[in-house]
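Note to self: user wants both folds in one dump. Writing first protein now.
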Amino acid sequence: MARRPRPVHPGEILREDFLPDYGLTAGSLAKALLVPRDRIEKIIREKRAVTADTAARLGRLFGTTPQFWLNLQANYDLASLAVEDIDKIEPRAA
């Protein structure tokens, strides 16, 4: 069986690609986004998902779309699923 690549959490993208490029810390990003610092800290530690609210704020600040951040989260969530359980579900015909 082919090994699946490790899913990439949006917090990793934020931590590795955005914070250094913009010279931001978790605290300064939280302040710029007008959100609690622990929200950003949990996201960059990959302990919290990016919500629609956070995606909209990140999109506004970085000139991306909210959908960019939500797509990163959705891709991470789908790649992290326990596929074995889903494969046990019997499809139903309409």
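First done. Writing the second protein, which came from a different request thread.
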Amino acid sequence: MVDKDTVRRSYDDLAETYAAERSEAGRGKDILDHFLRLLPKSASVLDAGCGQGTPVLRQLNASAIAAGLDFSRSQLDLATENAPHASLIQGDMTNLPVQDGMFDAITAYHSLIHIPLEEHQAVINEFVRVLRPNGRLLLAERPDEWSGSNSDWLGTGVEMQWNIAGAEATREQLRNAGLIIVDEWEITETFAGDDEQVVFFSTQLDT
């Protein structure tokens, strides 16, 4: 089971290393471009689990009114440099510190996988709470359910933990929250020299 405080401290400790490994290229960027074209002009977009601000928050910052949320202070310090015009919020995705109906859209790349499995539905429900009518969510998950940890992640001597619900469970959670799945892609991304299978869900609030 994931301990969120352990994950937060780990991202604080390895912020620079993680930033160096995260690529700004790849199909995930193309999917984000497609998603952004669906949004209204001057859309307000929250990047939930924005990390160091690359690649997603930086891209949002260029074409939308962007806000980034993360629970790692060190990651947000880097995001200040990488997406200087974005609003930054430190907080937990299970209890977003923002008002109802604040955003036209939300992106969540590689962030839900660090939340305890029993809280995944609560996170998606929170996303829906802060979306405006007809709001959209772009969420990245892994295809298969898996939970585990690595005591020496990225060769840093720092432990990282994951709770991956898998695509099937995530589809159900999205629908339970009142979201319609508009598009779905399974792609291969490269991180730290390894290929990873990622499933992207583009959804819209059913209002």
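Dump finished. Worth passing along: The chain has a mean pLDDT of 95.
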